[in-house]
Write a structure and sequence with these properties.
The complex is a heterodimer of chains A (127) and B (290).
Chain A: H1 5-14, E1 21-24, E2 30-33, H2 35-41, H3 45-48, H4 53-59, E3 62-63, H5 76-83, E4 87-94, E5 100-111, E6 117-126
Antiparallel strand pairs in A: 1-2, 1-6, 3-4, 4-5, 5-6
Chain B: E1 2-3, E2 13-18, E3 39-43, E4 49-52, H1 58-64, E5 71-75, H2 81-84, E6 99-104, H3 112-119, E7 135-140, E8 144-148, E9 151-157, E10 165-171, E11 174-179, H4 201-204, E12 209-213, H5 218-222, H6 232-241, E13 246-250, H7 258-270, E14 278-281, E15 287-289
Parallel strand pairs in B: 1-15, 4-5, 5-6, 6-7, 11-12, 12-13, 13-14
Antiparallel strand pairs in B: 2-3, 2-15, 3-4, 8-9, 9-10, 10-11
Helix pairs in contact in B: 6-7
Classes of the chains: A alpha+beta (127), B alpha/beta (290).
The complex binds zinc ion (2 copies).
One zinc ion (ZN) binds next to loops of chain B.
Chain lengths: 127, 290
């Protein structure tokens, strides 16, 4: 089964950007991230493939500004998908290469034709 | 011309009333593959017919329906002019009381009916939908699956500018997939993506007949990236990836002569090495048995 066109086009667009971009499906699985995001996360997408929620949350946990690990249901991605509204938050990522990187993430849900919800796009701005 | 009759007496007949893309292209150079724009009729052995797209070919398709037809279903992939320009000349719309069902994509802000009204109203056309004597039912569809008589219909958005659907029709154990305007290679640096990320994949998977965009040559495509069309060679790659059994090169460029259509499609067909796929250019008024 191929993915919805909204996500297919988002991936093709993200693959051409030097802005770090991650794509999530409605279940919160990380289904793609571009090369720029790979530099922040410490691994390439070709190495990890897609990861379901618990996998990516374990692979690169996010911490809030007080240094506490953000739980799965409180993550900006989960919040954006659940609420259907954009979320912007500054987090510290414990990346897969062992380095901690601070970044501001903007997650916006993808609303398709006839308001079908298809997932979320996460833009990452290194802070 | 009619080819490929089934041995079990069942199956679908697919008649090509328009195979051209973008603009009708009548004239001495296009008599073989035809000059009318997109319109295809798929009929099962019980005689139930679905019509795909309303290019200029639909004028003749409309006249081929039985006189006592009770209901007509027209599935529109999208509302580019070459796919709706024949609509005002579709005879069933002028049959008093006949139920005509139009299926197609809304935009993010307008229904299918309101989008079609833009064309079927002055100054572009003298008659409005509400003034037609038939009973017109417009159905907004994007991705989904439903039944029309004995046909199982599946639609999904596919890669082409503006909301555009592909269709998969199943009846009597046969599958026909219709992707007349499709750029599955968009954004890929080489070839096509893997099936998970391949636009149209689940519509075309295992199709007995795949009708697919093959408008541009490789050279033409270099300057037309993002215009929404495919090349014959990439159409072959797509057909291989989805494991289609038979591929019709469709949506011929209006500038292409019969000789050129024949040549570029033959070149593309030679790139298929496994030998499982049957390929040919779509020719107007051909009737294909699936
Ligand atoms: Zn077209
Ligand atoms: Zn088009």
């Amino acid at each position: 089964m191929s993915r919805p066109l909204e996500l297919i086009l988002a991936r093709q667009w993200a693959a051409l950007l030097s802005t770090p971009v991650m794509l999530f499906d409605m279940e919160g699985s990380l289904i793609f991230f571009n090369e720029a995001a790979g530099l922040l996360l410490g691994r390439k997408y070709d190495e990890t493939g897609s990861m379901v929620g618990p996998e990516w949350q374990a692979a690169f946990p996010m911490e809030d500004e007080a240094g506490r690990v953000i739980g799965a249901t409180d993550s900006p991605v989960a919040t954006a998908i659940r609420s259907g509204s954009p979320v912007m938050r500054t987090v510290t990522v414990r990346a897969m290469d062992g380095v901690r990187r601070k970044a501001t993430v903007t997650v916006f849900p993808v609303h398709g034709l006839e308001r079908t919800r298809q997932g979320a796009v996460c833009l990452v701005h290194p802070a | 011309m009619s080819r490929g009759w089934n041995t079990d007496g069942k199956g679908l007949s697919v008649t090509l009333f328009g195979t051209r893309g973008s603009l009708p292209a009548p004239g001495p150079d296009t008599t073989r593959f035809g000059g009318n724009t997109s319109c295809v009729m798929v009929k099962n052995s019980a005689g139930q017919a679905l019509i795909l797209d309303a290019g200029s070919g639909i004028r003749i398709a409309g006249n081929r329906l039985p006189k006592d037809v009770k209901r007509v279903d027209l599935l529109l992939t999208h509302l580019h002019m070459d796919h709706i320009q024949g609509l005002g000349f579709f005879a069933p719309l002028y049959t008093p009381g006949l139920d005509v069902h139009l299926w197609g994509p809304p935009s993010t802000t307008r229904t299918l009916r309101s989008r079609l009204n833009r064309y079927l109203s002055p100054p572009l056309f003298p008659v409005r939908i509400r003034e037609l004597p038939s009973r017109v039912h417009c159905h907004d569809v994007t991705q989904g699956q439903w039944e029309i008589g004995d046909f199982k219909v599946r639609s999904s958005l596919v890669a082409h500018p503006d909301p555009t659907l592909g269709y998969r029709l199943e009846s009597e154990g046969r599958i026909v997939t219709y992707l007349p305007d499709h750029e599955p290679q968009l954004g890929c640096r080489t070839g096509l993506p893997t099936t998970e990320w391949l636009s149209g994949h689940h519509l075309a998977e295992g199709a007995d007949l795949l009708i697919h965009d093959a408008q541009y040559t490789e050279d033409e495509y270099l300057n037309r990236v993002g215009w929404g069309h495919c090349t014959p060679t990439l159409a072959v790659r797509f057909a291989e990836l989805v494991r289609a059994r038979r591929l019709l090169f469709f949506h011929h460029d209006p500038s292409r002569s019969d000789v050129e259509v024949e040549r570029i499609c033959a070149e593309a067909s030679r790139t298929h090495k496994q030998g499982m796929l049957v390929t040919e250019p779509a020719a107007e008024m051909d009737e294909i048995k699936v």
